[in-house]
Structures are given as structure tokens and as C-alpha cells.
Design a protein that fits this description.
This is DUF3000 domain-containing protein. With 195 residues, the protein is α+β, with helices and mostly antiparallel strands. The protein has 4 helices and 6 strands. The chain has one domain. It is 22% helix and 32% strand.
């Protein structure tokens, strides 16, 4: 079992600086956004978009959010003063969205990414949701759509950068860009903005 210790420093300023210093692959454009209010005394949040459109900033491939929370009161579900909350979603081909194991695969990609980056954690929880949609009326021309969405949280141990890197890898994996695929053209995938 992982040692249940907070990240390198109990200083939130130090932790936020570590999150901000993380480097990302060029396919994922990451920016700091306002952290959700009321979840913890201290928080920092990032938003990431896979290969966003240069004009609109929107991504047809996938998007995600990463939030680091700090509460010295150590809420019982966290089992410590730190908590990471993440969100990742990507549109899919309808036949992929119909796969009964898709939600399990999405969760396994998160666990694999955390393990690959040696990100120590405990008290993990989350949901994987897949949706399949069909357009009618004026939307019938858009055809069928599908989407996968993963919402997860865990309590980090050790350095924080590996957790941010694992989140970034998850967002890219859901978007169809596995590690090592930076700059490779995605062909044969029809992505829609409708889930």
C-alpha cells in the first residue's frame, strides 16, 4: 500500500507552482481556469483541449479538467488534506460507443496512466459514462453520435506533476491519441461535437 503522506510540501503555494510548471505535449493545449468555489479552502484548476481549432479554441477530439484541492481539515472521504478531481470527455464513433466494455476501458486508462507516471494515490473513486445519440428533425443530417466521459477523484501521495501528466495522458487517450502519437494525423475518425 502507498505511504499516506501529502505531496512534497504542505504549502498550497508550492503545490500550485508544481502544477503550473508541468509541461504538456503540443497536441494538448492547457490553461489555468478559475477553480470551483466551495469545495476546499485552496484550489487550482486546469482545462485542456486536444488539438483545438485555432480560431474558436474548441476541440472536436476531446477536452478535460484537472482540479487540485487542499483542505487542512482532511475531509473523511479524502483520507488526507489533498484531493484531485478530474474530468475527461471525447466524442466517439457510434460503434465504439456501443462497446459494452468502453466504461471499464476508460477507467483502466486512468489507472494505467497514474501507474505509468508513478503517481502515488489512494481513495480513488469515479464514474465512466457513455452516451449514444441520434439526431431527428433538423438534426437528422448530423447522424448518430457517441461520447465517453470520465469523472474521477483520488488523494495524491508524493509529487504532484505525475498526477497532472497522467490526467493529460488520459485526455489524449480518450481523444484517440495514445502516448507517442504527438503530431500524427488522425484519419478515419469522424468526430462530431454532439454526444
Amino acid at each position: 500500500m502507498a505511504e499516506l503522506r501529502p505531496p512534497e510540501s504542505s504549502s498550497f503555494a508550492h503545490a500550485a507552482a508544481e502544477v503550473r510548471a508541468t509541461r504538456f505535449r503540443a497536441d494538448l493545449v492547457v490553461r489555468e481556469i478559475p477553480a470551483p468555489a466551495g469545495l476546499a479552502p485552496d484550489a487550482i484548476a486546469l482545462a485542456g483541449d486536444v488539438r483545438p481549432d485555432a480560431d474558436t479554441g474548441d476541440s472536436i477530439y476531446g477536452t478535460g479538467r484537472f482540479v487540485l484541492l487542499h483542505d487542512p481539515g482532511e475531509p473523511p472521504p479524502w483520507n488526507g488534506p489533498w484531493r484531485i478531481v478530474c474530468f475527461a470527455q471525447a466524442p466517439l464513433e457510434p460503434d465504439i460507443g456501443a462497446d459494452p466494455l468502453l466504461a471499464d476501458v476508460a477507467w483502466s486508462w486512468l489507472v494505467d496512466a497514474l501507474d505509468a507516471h508513478r503517481a502515488g494515490y489512494h481513495s480513488a473513486s469515479g464514474t465512466a459514462t457513455k452516451t449514444i445519440s441520434k439526431g431527428f428533425g433538423s438534426l437528422s443530417g448530423e447522424g448518430d453520435g457517441s461520447q465517453i466521459e470520465l469523472r474521477a477523484s483520488w488523494s495524491p501521495t508524493g509529487p504532484l506533476a505525475p498526477h497532472v501528466e497522467a490526467w493529460a495522458e488520459l485526455v489524449c487517450m480518450l481523444a484517440g491519441l495514445p502516448p507517442g502519437s504527438e503530431g500524427i494525423e488522425v484519419i478515419g475518425i469522424r468526430r462530431t461535437t454532439r454526444g
